[in-house]
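Hi there,

I know you've been waiting on this one. I reran it after we fixed the sequence typo, so this is the corrected version. Both the input and the resulting structure follow.
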Amino acid sequence: MLPLLIAAFIPSVIAYSAIDDAPRIASIAAGEATGSAQLQVQMLGFEVHGAHVAGHLATLDNPAGRVSLALPPGGCGTREKVTITSQVHRPRCKLAVNAGYFNVHNGACIGNVVSQGTIIQTVPLSQGNVNFGIKNGMFHIGYIAPEEMPGYDMMVSGVVWLVRNGRNNVEKGWKEANITVQTSGDKYATNLASRTAVGWDKEGRLMLQIDGSLAVGHNKRGMDMSTLADALIKHGAVEAINLDGGGSSAMVLDSVLINYPSDMLPPSCPDPSRLYQCERPVSTALCIHEVVGEQAAIDYDALMMERQYGVVTDKSAGAGPSPILFLFGGAVLFGLGSAAILLLRNFVPF
């Protein structure tokens, strides 16, 4: 993730504008939410510019109702590690990756943000970027205007539409993107770096992919956007977008970080010696969870109560029966047992 700068400091860039008459949005029905989450996480290996690059491909066969945009505990405008956000989000994330861009100076979210059906912020279409969102059981990728956002369950903005209709779209995607949200300029697409992407295949299965990099020394290791798009296509992607990457890239499975982050500086690493590579606090995370439908809403309401009042209601998922009820029930059973023994002593000789 690179910091936001005023566009005047970046030469030869423009905000989003359509460069042909192709539709602004691509959509597909999300795979049905039958049974438990059918999630596969595979480790991948690539050779890029003579160096070995490792990554992970996560595929969810039945994503309907199981994908959320998780915000840090402090909400949009604050930052937290994906390992933490994935645990405190309700419902808890089985798998999570870093998602949207943010301003590293003040933590502000960049782009369109919709979480749990609530529109957190919008960006004018002319200043926006490509988005990944879910609405009415459909996945959507594209350039979405603020007036089109009501009704979305979630939405997050990336930079560059990587794969479009099964083809490498990086060249065109770069031309139509608003690249002022990062500071590498024209090299942002061609730099070797960690990359995070999200998309789907022809069956509406959700696909997440991360390629890790090493930040040590002068020989950087990672992927450029075009290589990333080709890798996604090789594994079946029909549509995909590039999310925040670099030192922000993180993949968390069952609350455990499984990729190698490349950030080496505070606040990610408390030690400024550059001897360590650490997970970076980020603004949002894409979350895959087991719970769907009404129970997910109950979990989210319980989380809001917990954050506001420091308590969890007895509606919260996974909370189980209240301990007070256990104590009360035990006392009642003890009383009934004592009464029965006294009654038996009056009629049965011991």
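Quick highlight: The first strand starts at residue 25 and ends at 29.

Best,
R. S.
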